[in-house]
Amino acid sequence: MSSHPRVLSSLILLATLATLLTSPPTAAAAPIEPATQTARIPDPRFGIIETYHAPADAAASGAGWTRITFEWNQIQPAGPDSWVEYPIPDAAIDAERAAGREVVGLLVTTPGWAWAQFGGKNVPAGLDLPLNDPGNLWATFVRTIVTRHRNRIQHWIIWNEPDIWGTDFQSWGGTVEEFARLMEVAYRVAREANPNAVIHLPAVTHWWDVNYGREPFLERLLDALAARPEAQQYGYFFDAFTLHLYFNADTLYDLSQYYQGMLRTHGLNKPLWIVETNAPPSNDPAWPIQGPNFNITQEEQAAFMVQGLAMALAAGAERVAVYKMADREGDHVNAEPFGLVRLDGTRRPAFTAYQVATTYLAGFRQGSLLRRDNATVVRIRRANGWTTVAWARGPEAVEVRLEAHARSARLVDWHGNVSLINARGGFYTLTLPASACTHPAAPCLIGGEPWMIVEGGLSSSAPAPGTTPPAVSPNPATPTPRFTPTPKSGKNQIS
User: Fold this and answer.
1) Alpha helices, DSSP H, located in 198-272
2) Which domain holds residue 343?
3) Contact partners, residue 158, CB within 8 Å, separation at least 6
4) What is the C-alpha to C-alpha distance for residues 389 and 369, in angstroms, rounded to an integer?
5) Residue 433 domain-assigned (yes or no)
6) 385-423: per-residue pLDDT in tens?
7) Which of 92, 91, 74 is nearest to 83 (CA)?
8) What global pTM score does this model have?
9) 19: CATH
10) Residues 361, 344: contact at Cβ < 8 Å?
11) Which end of the chain has fewer beta carbons closer than 10 Å to its terminal beta carbon, N or C?
């Protein structure tokens, strides 16, 4: 969501959360390791949106990529001959890249002068004209901006949350068939301007359509793309697909699996990016929320940082990012404070949790998930070892026994405190703190404080996970079913 309130997602998630979800050690703590306190080479798998608003904090955060929203109506406000370096000067984009953060561009919002005369909201005029026809205004804009940033930006997300409809914040008022043409034009023109360009489908929120009983937008779009005459020749006009998922770590995994299964039923295998996630707090005195949709403490937001990043990796997301770097004047339209950095420049606890998570999850190679009624365990295989992330799912503490790969390991909390844990009989045993459960749900909306067992060395950096146009599977698989935890009756433990 870049130009309308996140409150939409929270309201929708609130309405259907129950239908989707299924039913500390005493060792002395040490300070956070220096790698998370100072600037370091970031793992490009992890991002934060709009890092350019707080570049010093971004350098300390561990973010390896960011997104910049290029609103066409702000770039060419007065007509086809106007051009504004919006939202930041080109030099600021260069500064982001020089700091080690890859920049991803988001294209959205047709200027009024370029609207089709009889089309819906934001449908560009001349969309069905040939790609080299000056009357195809969208083709001309895409060609210009991709060429301009050819050496700066390789990844382009086309549009934002077109699945939200019926509000003033609707970003797309045309048909799904018109949107399929928008994607075709953007893909072909961008690839002509920059053969290395990687084109993403627009991010969808899932909940808006599902709560109103509509077939998910992405399902309808995939059908419309497949109907385009040259769809197979051009890889269905996209290289990756994108989700925006908020407030609950379970949904990051479950909906990622759901949409990956949706692509497989269409014979497609494309990388997934979770470009926006967060669980903004409602109790920060710097930004109090009256009557919040979800009662979330700053500590729960911090816990979500670790939980959410771990679940995204376990779900197979190629990249994941937090919305967003810093609160800004005028952000109160969003209702909730999404920034890891407050307006006054101080950092929320979630900032530290993000630092810690990116430190100990860097170098990701493989992930797996184990869920029960009372605890979640994500096991991450890294380039130099293992990181096991575990948290209680309910309002009671849970004892867990976790397989060991070494005789001892670091035990890390989201604050960055590090202690030593020893294995006994091939297992680590620890007690996971209960969830505060400030918002009623079963299991709790956000689990308890997560612990990380870190075995082996740390990765100061990792190669960028490259997105390439994937081959079409000749035997598409069926959708992955939603995971149903198996209760362990009468016991608050998991092994």
Assistant:
1) 207-211, 217-226, 249-265
2) 7-23+39-364
3) 107, 182, 183, 186, 187, 199, 200, 201, 202, 238
4) 10
5) no
6) 999 999 999 999 999 999 999 999 999 999 999 999 999
7) 74
8) 0.87
9) 3.20.20.80
10) no
11) C
